[in-house]
Amino acid sequence: MLVYYFKLMLKTRRIDNPTSQFIKWGITRNAVNKMFRNNVSHLRLSDIEILCKKLHCTPNDLLRYIPDSKPNPLNPIPLDALIRHEEEANIQEQLSELDIDQLKKVSAMINKLKEEDL
Fold first, then answer.
1. DSSP for 5-58?
2. Which residue of 7, 18, 40, 73 lies most exposed, with the fewest beta carbons within 10 A?
3. In 3-state terms, what secondary structure has residue 63?
4. Rounded CA separation 114/111 (Å)
5. pLDDT, tens digit, 9 for 90 and up, residues 75-89
6. Phi, psi dihedral angles at 56 (to 5 degrees)
7. What is this structure's pTM?
8. Residue 83 and residue 70 in contact, taking contact as beta carbons nearer than 8 Å
């Protein structure tokens, strides 16, 4: 089953009050309420576009795949890439536990990744 998964993007973008932020960006209050009650069966493409632009992500980053059964590593399907794990949402906590030298290495890796995207 595919579901919308905003938790990781909101945490990494340090958005503490997503409801008001999403409304400021032009997403209707009704859509926002449905999003955060996991009661969304569809979103307008224009809303997805707004979210992707503002959160600097792709639609895939906003989705989570919950397989009906355990994924088969010998026969993976493309949706398996959208299986999200809760530990992904703890990046800020992980960063807070690093010493300054480790943070410098992380910063260098991030800069290298940005350069590769250019």
1. --HHHHHHTT-S-HHHHHHHTT--HHHHHHHHTT--S---HHHHHHHHHHHT--
2. 73
3. strand
4. 5
5. 888 888 888 766 555
6. 50, 65
7. 0.67
8. no
